[in-house]
Amino acid sequence: MQIKRFCITLLFLASCVNLFAQEVDFTVSAPSVVSVGEQFRVVFKLNARPQELNPPAFDNFYILAGPSTSSSSSIQIVNGQMTQTYEFSYTYILEATESGKFEIGSASATVSKKEYKTNPISIEVVTGGGAQSASSKVQQSETPNINAEQSSDNMFIDIEFDRGTAYRGQPILATLKLYTRQNIAGFDDFKFPSFNGFWSQEVETANNIRFQRENINGRVYNVGILKKYLLLPQRTGDLKINPFELVVLAQQQGRGSGSIFDDFFGSHQTVKLRLQSKEKTLKIRDLPPNAPASFTGAVGDFNLQASLDKASIKTNEAVNLKVRIAGSGNIKLIETPKFEFPSSFEVFDPKVTDNISTTSQGATGSKTFEFVAIPRGPGSFNLGSMEFTYFSPLKEKYVTLKSESLNLSVEADGSEQATAPMVGFGREDVRFIGKDIRFIKTEGIKVGRSYNLLFASKAYFAIVALLLIAFVALFWFIQQNRKLMDNIALVRTRKANKVASKRLREAQKYLSLSNAESFHEELLKALWGYVADKLSIPVANLSSDTVRETLEHSNVQDTDIDEFLRIIAACEYARYAPKSETSQMTHLYDNAISLIAKLEGVIGK
Amino acid sequence: MNRRYYSLIVLCLMLFAANAKAEIQIDSLVFRANEHYIDNNFDRAAELYQTLVDSGYQSADIYFNLGNAYFKLNRMPYAILNFERAYRLNSSDEDIEFNLEYARTFTVDRIEPLPVFFLLKWYRSVRRMLPSNGWAWSSILWIAVTLSLALIFWFALKPFTKRLTFSLGIISLVFAVVSVVFSAQEKENETIRDKAIIFQPVVTVKSSPGETGNEIFILHSGTKVQITKALGKWVEIRISDGNKGWIPSESIELI
Predict the structure, then answer these.
(1) Does B123 contact A at CB distance below 8 Å?
(2) Tell me, what's the pLDDT at B115?
(3) pTM
(4) What distance lies between CA A596 and its chain's CA centroid?
């Protein structure tokens, strides 16, 4: 317990020692430019309590007030760590009496028996017009001593370039500045310039505007940087930079009321002032004409690295060519450098990554291109070396960088399709490059004296009439023919019975005469003839088979057909037999008559 | 008897020979004109084609070639006139249509044609597939087919044959009728010369015939117009957007 307390005390003491041990800082701050008759402050600041402080002599200035001293101290404890800061300031308010450049000597202070000195400062006093500002920093609380006249003399904006001429692609830094001799309450409307013909990028600047004093043509202005842009010229020639506009809320002392309070308290009026910068011209030179083929628009100062990720791969595996371009210049606008892979490689679009920071010195960083290629065939390839050309504005010439030679060995992976290169790449639509009429007709030209139209002409009607006549004629002919055929068949059928009975009568005559041969012949004729006529069978086709078939077709009963064929067979047999009985012949005759009667009943109708 | 036949044959041969001779002359003329055209001697080519046309020979191909020659000579109204004439004789040729369309883009007047109902457009494009004579032959063919099918239908014994020939016959009858209608309409298109090309560089179209008429609109050379009326030296024209007016007849050339 005792030990712990002791330690804490020790620690406290140590921190106190630390306070005194920290570096003593003794500075002076004063405006660099003032005008004659202007009041300004000179402040000496010390971060420790001095035992003694000797201000310098202000020979050329009239001391209006001072020295006034002020001190402040603060103690901070963060995470048990205590820090104490102390500030002691010693302020004079001076007035410049004559113009010229004057030096204020160094002040000396003694802290812990040690003497510290400020650096001597020089103040330029100009015989600027009546307008004065008592503050080095714009502070609204200050009461400015202004004979305000609302003119662009008291406030203007301008755009400055770090160089007036540049090569295409060479970065130019544009600074937008505000010059004021009045207090500013705020900004209202800011119309940024459009940098036509440039690729522009804003450079990061501090958020709040810090004003610095500058001597412009013998007048003192507070100058603040509004914005900074990095411009990359894209066109050549005299490029105009359009003016930019800014609306400033300026504070002015009230005028015209004449009240005593106004003079005393200084009533303020906030006035809107629209400021416009002047138009400026930049001269952009084109790059020299004889650019090497590997030039892709890079201007600046660069270095190149190119490497393959693998030295040997198998077919259909991807190999990665990494190209890194680093340096400063228009690095963002560098196009992909060309690299030709052998034709057996399938190449994909490169992947581009960049790491670029834009500062007021220009864009610096690196851009990386990753080419992915897949070899489709095996072999040992020397891919050559990567080339990259940039234009150096300092040397005013093109510089070509070359990487070391890239080698790749590709082994077959065993699959068959690998050897065939991809087909169907490189196909494109037909491009039309011009338009013209189609060419004249040179072949098969038929020339006629007059152009006869067939339709509704005599020839046309004649052809149609001919067709109709042919139709009618054919119709008539076919019909007549068919009628005739029908008639013949009809007559034959009708006469069949008569013919048959006539023949049968003949047969009967031969029967009575006992002439067996003639009888059988007539009987055969009668039967055959009857069937042939009745069924319209040509005589040439007559046979027992056709008769059977035709009779079957005519719905004649099978027993009758058999009977018919039996009688025929009997007649044929008896015809050539040496002798035959009359009773047999009579029987055959009766059978034939009854059969014909039966057939007549079936097929006669 | 024999002698008479002989003299007839000789007469026929003589006629044929004369015809053949004329044909050879024309062929050589066309050939020479084509040669001139190929040698970029468009002036001479146009002259030869023009003599052919002027002497009464008609052919879509000759008009087409003449139009091409005039086109190359940058005489657009002449080129358009001849392309139009070629198109009138043969509206199914793709090259003629293309060159006509292309030559029209060189005219000053841009007239929005009245919209045509799409069914009518289809109908016209089908009709335009064949010239009038083609449709006439087609009609003869289909009439013959219809009659033959009618014969077969009449005398066929099997019901299937009857049904088949009946339906086929109806179809061929439809074809025959369509061919007749198309042939008649195409014949009208090919014979009626009511379209013209403006040849005068600038023509003021008036509301009535005569110099006193109010001026309605202005047309430039190369524009196609339809003649609707004629009165003395004045013709009433109608342009493709439907506007009408009167112009002097000497400022136009009939297609």
Answers:
(1) no
(2) 85
(3) 0.40
(4) 103
Whether A178 and A160 have beta carbons less than 8 Å apart is answered as: no
Chain A residues whose CB is inside 8 A of the B52 CB are 447
Contact A451 B68 (CB under 8 A): no
Q: Which residue has the tokens 């000597």?
A: A105
Per the structure, the complete domain to which residue B35 belongs is given by: 2-104
- Each residue of B151-190: pLDDT tens digit? 999 888 888 999 999 999 999 999 999 999 999 998 888 7
Strand partners of residue A35: A126
Distance CA B186, CA B197 (A): 21
Domain check: are B200 and B167 in the same one?
no
Q: Could you tell me if residue B40 is left (phi over 0), alpha (psi between -120 and 50 degrees) or otherwise beta?
A: left
Nearest CA-CA partner of A321 in A388, A416, A385:
A385
- Name the helix (H) or strand (E) containing B51: helix B42-54
Number of structural domains (chain B) is 3
Asked if the Cβ–Cβ distance from A467 to B155 is below 8 Å, we say no
> Mutate which of B53, B140, B193 to test chain A, going by most A C-beta atoms within 10 A?
B140
Pairwise CA distance, residues B87 & B106, whole Å: 18
In this predicted structure, what is the pLDDT of residue A106? 80
Selected residue of A438, A439, A455 to mutate for chain B interface (largest B Cβ count, 10 A): A455
Same domain, B249 and B213: yes
Q: Is residue A220 helix, strand or coil?
A: strand
Q: At A502, list the tokens.
A: 């006539």
Residues of A whose CB is below 8 A from B62? 445, 447
Say what the pLDDT of residue B147 is: 93
Q: In the structure encoding, which two tokens stand for residue A269, read together?
A: 């009026």
Residue B13 in any domain: the answer is yes
In order, the DSSP letters of A180-198 are ESSEEEEEEEEEPPP-TTE
ipTM for the whole complex: 0.71
Q: Does B71 touch chain A (CB under 8 A)?
A: yes
Q: What is the pLDDT of residues A379-419, one digit of tens each?
A: 888 888 888 888 888 888 888 888 888 888 888 776 555 44
Query: Where is the domain boundary, B73, B104, B135?
Result: B104
Q: Does A443 touch chain B (CB under 8 A)?
A: no
Comparing B45 with A451, the larger pLDDT belongs to B45
A105: amino acid identity, one letter: G
Question: Which portions of chain A are predicted below pLDDT 70?
Answer: 1-22, 128-153, 252-268, 360-362, 414-431, 433, 448-451, 578-580, 604-605
Shared domain check, B96 and B6 = yes
Nearest to B178 by CA among B186, B188, B166, B168: B186
Q: Per the CB < 8 Å rule, is B59 touching A439?
A: no
Using CA atoms, how far apart are residues A550 and A556, in angstroms rounded to an integer?
Answer: 9
Q: Tell me what pLDDT residue B93 has.
A: 86
Q: What was the pLDDT predicted at B235?
A: 92
What does residue A268 show for φ and ψ, rounded to 5 degrees?
-110, 150
Domains of chain A: residue spans and CATH? 2-126 (2.60.40.10), 155-285 (2.60.40), 295-418 (2.60.40), 483-603 (1.20.120)
Contact between chains at A439 and B68 (C-beta distance less than 8 A): yes
Beta bridge partners of A89: A45, A70
CB contact A433 to B (< 8 Å)? no
Tokens of residue A499, six digits? 């013919």
The pLDDT of residue B146 is above 90 = yes
Q: Which of A375, A401, A374 is nearest to A389 (CA)?
A: A401
CB B252 within 8 A of CB B198: yes
Hey, what amino acid is at A227? Answer: K
Please tell me whether residues B100 and B8 are part of one structural domain.
Answer: yes
CB-based contact (8 Å) between A447 and chain B? yes
DSSP secondary structure letters along A102-145: EEE---EEEETTEEEEPPPEEEEEE---S---S-SS--TTS---
